[in-house]
Sequence to fold (614 residues):
Amino acid sequence: MPVTVVGSIAFDAIKTPFGERERILGGAATHFSLAASFFTDVRVVGPVGDDFGEEEYAVLHGRGVNTEDIEHVEGGKTFFWAGEYEYDFNTAKTLDTQLNVFGDFQPKLSEGSTSAELLFLANIQPDLQREVREQCTGAQIAGLDSMNYWIQSARDSLVRTIGMVDILFLNDAELRMLTEEPNLVRATRKVMDMGPRVIVAKQGEYGAALFTGDGFFALPAFPLETVVDPTGAGDSFAGGFLGYLDSAGRSLDDGTLRRAMTYGSTLASFWVEEFGSERGQRLTREEIDERYEKFRSITTIESVPTA
Amino acid sequence: MPVTVVGSIAFDAIKTPFGERERILGGAATHFSLAASFFTDVRVVGPVGDDFGEEEYAVLHGRGVNTEDIEHVEGGKTFFWAGEYEYDFNTAKTLDTQLNVFGDFQPKLSEGSTSAELLFLANIQPDLQREVREQCTGAQIAGLDSMNYWIQSARDSLVRTIGMVDILFLNDAELRMLTEEPNLVRATRKVMDMGPRVIVAKQGEYGAALFTGDGFFALPAFPLETVVDPTGAGDSFAGGFLGYLDSAGRSLDDGTLRRAMTYGSTLASFWVEEFGSERGQRLTREEIDERYEKFRSITTIESVPTA
Fold:
């Protein structure tokens, strides 16, 4: 304890077939922090502008997130993203991206953040992720997220960054793109050769798969009748995963990782039920543990009765 | 006992990134029969031409499949399909389809076949499927497969046929297309309102999900480093599923259905390792049961240790 997360803090405008929001609190670091806060202490690192005020801080503080390393850039504006989803929730159509204060972001972490035992590098430019990893000398375990954009535009830097982390979160298409290997099992093996001991292949509505040295585990997504907005699903997954992992002593044994997968999927399943982090903001640990048990029951296979 | 399957018996020409076969035994009923034969007695019903000879019968007889109701059409040619897969194994590109003897197929089932307790209607024209369902008065349980082509070209007939079966096998895109409902949970509920008590949503490389009245179960695909040819995956899945179900007394309780799902996925996982049914032809029950246990181990979630 605690967990440090570095990444975007944002305002989002989101439109889906189920409604829209013109301006809600978003950003990878925000979603991660709120999700992880159900399991452990969280410190969030990232820049915001003058438009980021009491109301936004209150959401984070309401979940006990430490915001000491949120950097307020005087005269700046907070990162803004506008996106739209159609019925295929797997891909967002970006309508507008305004980097604003994020454009000149140089992470400066306080000692409280650099000494955290667990670090999550949310999806930002891989050079910045590496810089943060180097600063965080206390981190026994580092997790990383990235995206197709960096695979295409900054591959070498991303590969170096991947070499410095323990747990990589990517979706399966990105793992294939990164390795130019269509078979997912082979692709993850190639990525493990780059450094990470654990690969989480996110598969959207199909759930997620976990690859370790010689281990494999897969979990479906929780069956939901209503998916309103997938924004933040990946980051809330990572938050539930790494938050639980930290609370369980950061052991990377099989049983702990499987439970982390299940908590990650549980958090993501709540996240997509409403816009942005709205569901997460009024979630309880009891609801989480109840859904965790449902996950167990919908995936249990009995052995074959002997005749 | 036994299980009757009605559907195509074919010769296939298949090309994938891993090689090709110019002419191998194929067809939905063939793949189903071979897979189901590991669990129960199977009777296969369908037409063949003069080109279907000793060698092909030997494959079926080698697995104990009863071929009494294979209808030999004098002077005819067996159904032929040529297809190609690229690295995305989810969709085949059809290069050639020659219906041949299948064009005039009118199912005539012997009493041995109509009295079978379990019936599988493989993917053929839904009017024919209904005719077979009506003939098979002994069938306590009927399973059905279909495809996007019939949803588009014969929707009303297909819906009537769906109303006469107990277990429906479709891929998730087809379930959405059939119901015009993008959410899979809602789509399966709509399909259950048409009649079936059990819906199996096939999801290709992501596995399969099982929907019953108020139950849900999902299983990933077995992680394979080498997928050579997906032809027959769906039919070998149905064969493993229904073959096991028959051997287990055709109970549709949750535990039995989950085991059926696991056996279905197990058979499909072997099937795709080689071209057509080549792997299935030299498969053993021991290998099947071993992989079944691996499936259990890669999906098991432990409960959270209490503090």
